[in-house]
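Exercise 7. Given the encoded structure of a 291-residue chain, write a plausible sequence.
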């Protein structure tokens, strides 16, 4: 096998995100429900017979040493593989949005190179390496909607009803480190248990805010007023809104049936905002690619 093309790297939203504590090393302990959505980047990866790793940007330019290159380098080093790769990315998911686009690119890179380099690493070994790259990367490697705890290392697959999600990314972006460093961040939300989340009847009620909250959102809105503006824009149209991850993207639940509820009006988005009406995914398109 010399190449793998048209590989999806889907984004995610956090249906809720609670900060429930902090470890002695400074890492925050989180609880969240991650759901995959059909807003995705596309990767094409070609095997090289030398050890070189190269990335080629097909749309939005990325940083010189982005997370997918770091993922490829980490897998190459950990496996002792002497092969390389050309990684081409058609970037569609907004960056610095809390949608996990870079983490998803890294996970798709790991899954693809595991095949191209014939490593046959099992899922748990890939996921352990993924955790060294970032808290969200193991979720995408596991490939199922999940209840995620700790620092991204405790992942419990969950079944969710199909969801329509209106997602808006304002022009401004947010740095995750800035949000987590804020002294105003709530860090002691009481821990919840998975059955409480799954039993919550609001999950299918698109007129309600949904389970829990995003503890990062108040800080994000103070740092970036556009987050509050985007949240208000969605709430006016769908009756609910919530920031995803550490922002700045905001989403609204817009129905669970074959069609979303009325209200999506992308032509009314503010200049330089981007948005999509998304559907949730039951599983990652590359599920079972480990091993």
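Solution.
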């Amino acid at each position: 096998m010399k190449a793998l093309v048209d590989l999806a790297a889907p984004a995610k939203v956090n249906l809720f995100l609670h900060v429930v504590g902090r470890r002695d090393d400074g890492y925050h302990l989180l609880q969240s429900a991650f759901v995959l959505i059909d807003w995705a980047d596309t990767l094409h990866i070609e095997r090289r017979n030398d050890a070189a790793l190269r990335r080629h940007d097909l749309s939005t330019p990325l940083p010189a040493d982005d997370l997918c290159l770091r993922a490829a380098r980490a897998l190459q080093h950990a496996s002792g593989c002497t092969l390389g790769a050309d990684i081409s990315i058609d970037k569609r998911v907004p960056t610095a949005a809390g949608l996990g686009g870079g983490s998803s690119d890294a996970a798709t890179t790991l899954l693809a190179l595991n095949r191209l380099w014939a490593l046959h690493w099992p899922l748990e070994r890939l996921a352990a390496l993924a955790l060294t790259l970032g808290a969200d990367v193991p979720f995408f490697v596991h490939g199922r909607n999940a209840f995620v705890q700790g620092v991204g290392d405790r992942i419990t697959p969950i079944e969710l009803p199909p969801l329509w999600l209106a997602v808006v990314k304002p022009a401004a972006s947010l740095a995750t480190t800035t949000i987590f460093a804020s002294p105003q961040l709530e860090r002691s939300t009481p821990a919840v248990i998975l059955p409480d989340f799954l039993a919550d009847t609001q999950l299918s009620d698109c007129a309600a805010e949904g389970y829990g909250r995003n503890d990062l959102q108040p800080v994000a809105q103070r740092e970036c007023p556009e987050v509050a503006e985007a949240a208000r824009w969605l709430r006016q149209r769908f009756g609910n809104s919530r920031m995803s991850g550490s922002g700045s993207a905001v989403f609204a639940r817009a129905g669970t049936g074959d069609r979303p509820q009325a209200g999506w009006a992308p032509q009314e988005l503010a200049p330089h905002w981007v948005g999509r009406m998304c559907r949730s995914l039951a599983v990652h398109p590359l599920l079972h690619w480990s091993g």
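Remark. The chain has two domains: 3-157, 164-279. Students should compare their own answers with the one above.
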